Amino acid sequence: MPFTTIKVIENVFTNAQKKEMLEKVTAALIAVCGEKTRKGQWVVIEEVKKGDWAIGGEIANPT
To answer: Which end of the chain, C or N, has fewer beta carbons within 10 A?
Structure first.
């Protein structure tokens, strides 16, 4: 079954927003893989600290 990771910047999204992401990504996977795979769908949110990532070699610090 799919194991999906969503990476977000730490402290940007609320718990409610993260819950919605988890639910909607799971629903999208089930739409493709079928309802019988629901219990095998893993979706994880990883929070990345500001300054720990870059775009095009430039450290990104979102506002």
So the answer is: C
